[in-house]
Predict the structure.
Amino acid sequence: MDLYGNQSNNIPQKTLIITLELVLLFIAYNILLGDLGATIYRWFHIPFSGGNPTRNVINLTFSIVVFLRICVTILYLLKRSMPWEEAVSIPFAFSLYYVGYALLTCNANASINWLDYTAIFLFVVGSLINTVSELLRDAWKKQPGNKGKIYTGGLFKYSMHINYFGDMLWVIGYALLSHNPWSALIPLFLFCFFAFYNVPKLDAYLAGKYKEQFTRYASHTKKFIPFIY
C-alpha cells in the first residue's frame, strides 16, 4: 500500500488515536500522581520506593507535551492516508512512552540531579527539532511554486530525516528521566526501527517520486543523525 502517495482526511482513525492517547494519559496520571504505580509494583512483588514527586510531574509534563504535538501532527500536518492498523499501532507504540516510562520513573526516588536536567534538555531540543522541522516543511510545500520539488531546506539540510532524529532525542530524554537502565531498550529499539525500516522505506518512496532531485539531495546530506550518519 502506498501510504505516502495517497491523501485522506482520516477522521475516524484520528478520532481513535486521540481517544486512546487520552486514555493512556489518564493511566499515566494515576501511575505518577496517584496510587496506581505502587499498586502495580505490589502486584508483581517488586519493591516500591515511593519515587520523587517532582520527577513524576516532569514525566507527566513530557507526556502532555507529546500528546499536544501528536495532535498537531495528525490534525494539521498529516495529509497522507492512514490505514486502521496504523491508527491502532500508534497508541500502542506511545503506550511505551506514556505508561512504560511512567512505571519506570515512579519508582526512581533519587534527588533531582544532572541526569534529570539533561533529560529535560534533550526532550525540549528533540521536540523542537521534530515539530519545527515539520512546520517549516509544511509551509514550504504549500507554496505553489514548490510543487513537484523535494524539500531540502530548514533543518532538513542537516539530515534527510531530521524529524526522526528529533524523535530519538526526546525519547532518550524520557529514558534518562527514569533513572532506570532498562529504559535504554526503548530508544535503542526506536533507532533500529528508524534506521533499518522506516528510513529505507521512505527513501525508496522519495527516490521513486523525485528521482534525480533525491539522488542529489542524498549525495550530500546525512541520512539520519546530522554530521554523523
Notes: The first helix runs from residue 11 to 33. The chain has two domains: 1-110, 113-229. The chain has eight helices and no strands. Residues 1-110 form one domain.
